[in-house]
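If I may wish for something, please sit down with the protein I am sending here and say whether tokens and residues agree:
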Amino acid sequence: MLSNVSRRRFLAVSAAGGAGFDASVRSSSSDGKLAVLGGTPVRAEKFPSWPVTDAMDEQNCLDVLRSGRWTRGQKYTAQFEQAYAELMGARYCLSIANGTSALYTSLFAVGVSPGDEVILPPYTFVATLNVILLHYALPVFVDSDRETFQMDARKLEAAITPRTKAIVPVHIGGSAAELDMVLAVGKKHNIPVIEDACQAHLGEWRGRRLGSLGTTGCFSFQASKNLNCGEGGAILTSDEDVYGRCHSFHNNGRSRTTGAYVENGGNLRTTQFQTALLLSQMSRLQQQAKTRDQNGAYLTSMLKEIPGIVPARMYGGCTRNAYHLYMFRYEKERFAGTPRTPFLKALAAEGIPCSGGYRPLNKEAFLKKMLQSPGYQRIYGRKELAKWEERNQCAENDRLCEEAVWFGQTMLLGSRRDLEQIAEAIRKIQVQAAQLRTVGS
């Protein structure tokens, strides 16, 4: 299983990297020796590299360099925030240091503080949890829907208590959480919904952009993301008061209108270099998203024909998957009982970069240590925290973390032949799966 730290390493490796398909036809390589056992790989070429750059990226960065105005300023920052808000269908956009800062600031803006509870899924990057802990709030996990990799919204209401201050659905991989249910529960209980859309640039729910439906939507522009500037982030909202609190908090507590210190905050500002680069990168975003969308659907059409390979299902309301990750479940029973780790090693040896995804976030040792700290003990009491582990069992997520397989977003930017080779490699492994018992797990 992939640690939260090594996830980005996997995405970096996968980023470095036409004809129609007939599922009844097997490539000759399917009968060849597995590459992990010394045979010839299905694929020798690298997948498309990332990031994609052109002269506009260079010109924008040079313009900032020569201007001498490198900090948050008016030209590129204002242009990016306006353009991104319009693109995503929100009233306001605040550029910010990174996706973690976007989440942290959003929780502050809706009033999360020590003694509160915040709901999140257990299948997400560690930042979603860390920002809750930074506010000394209590994380409450809602189990995963194993078919979609998303929070199981059917179990959400049962997790609500009088202490619940925010709900944080995460659009993992760029597919949408079940927002009809999530937003309905939030509205019923008057609880803000903070969309973690850090992996979901241009993803949609019923024709609306992900990140524009909740109280806020949080985005990351870290180097692996579909829209990136190395490090960066954004908050979307259509609530003026929430925007004002976010703006103040990210700028050391200063009022956005008067400049006076009005509350506590931090320095979470972005730079002109980041927003200048984001503006030029946005010129390719729509076409790249279209390519991933089409290639993701094509890859699914092939993989769903392979027994034991189960592509992540999208909810009916998800009208566009951003495909930051292509995710599927591996059923070892259809591969001669071969565990997932030898399968991943064999697939990588065939020239197909892959990952086992996240570990169960609710079981991380650092989280248990944090809940046992003097601060948490004083705020919540030993009796309450003693029940936390039992309350936060996520059996479906435990199983998902044993079955998940990921491909990075750049693998969906190539040709159809690239995708056919992915399916070809998996079929080759399946035919000879029994031989993988000699590969370490």
User: Anything to note?
Assistant: The CA atoms of residues 41 and 189 lie 55 Å apart. Confidence is low (pLDDT under 50) at residues 1-5, 16-31.
